[in-house]
């Protein structure tokens, strides 16, 4: 049985969590909470270079993700290695997430908002939806995937979910003191952001976080839709 962790971040691709939740993850780690990353796809389509080989890209992106997680203080990274652009809402994928939720028993699960409209990567929508379903009701119900119970994985009720990329933000996290760590973690993903001047990327990201904090008593924020799991 894995050691429990307070937070599980379920990210579609390597680098999505750094855009969506890295500042908050770094703050949680500083506060003593343990964070686990679950990376659903291998990122083998995420390249603009026509000469890059998918197998090499997968290895590069895993190394980048591990470096970013280390920068943030994430305790562990679990790679599910589904093909990029190939995620489907299947019982098998859902069972993988239920198994991990029951293993690590997080209080908080963070993922991409599945209900963002129009232009949203399909892997993001499916990751968010399957994670939501895995949390409720499957991880909670003992008759869901009974073979997991037979292997000692008891049901677990998550306390709350946070969704990044939401059009319905109702909770903001102060990342004023961890923005630089978020930026450093994002810059670990050179295969994805290396072609953008770092000053330009930082300026864009800082402005975005500043807008998210508007009207609040802190300077920089990450915004989420927060849903408490009531049942």
> Beta-sheet strand percentage?
15-25%
What is the architecture at the second tier of CATH?
3-Layer(aba) Sandwich
Q: What is the CATH class?
A: Alpha Beta
On the 0 to 100 scale, the average pLDDT is 95
Overall structural class, as computed from helix and strand content, comes to: alpha/beta
Distance between the ends:
25 Å
Which spans have pLDDT < 50 for at least 5 consecutive residues? none
Largest sheet: 7 strands, mixed
Describe this structure in words.
- The structure is a single chain.
- With 231 residues, the protein is α/β, with parallel strands linked by helices.
- It has one domain (7-228): Rossmann fold (3-Layer(aba) Sandwich).
- Helix content is 42%, strand content 18%.
- The protein contains nine helices and seven strands.
- The chain has helices at 16-20, 22-30, 54-72, 91-104, 122-138, 146-150, 179-187, 190-193, 198-212; strands at 7-11, 35-41, 76-82, 108-112, 160-164, 171-174, 221-228.
- A seven-stranded mixed β-sheet has the order 3-2-1-4-5-7-6, sandwiched between helices.
- Strand 2 (35-41), helix 3 and strand 3 (76-82) form a beta-alpha-beta unit.
- Helix 4 (91-104) crosses helix 5.
- The longest helix is centred in the N-terminal third of the chain and has 19 residues, at 54-72.
- It is globular and about 50 Å long.
- It starts with 6 loop residues before the first strand and ends with a strand.
- The mean pLDDT is 95.
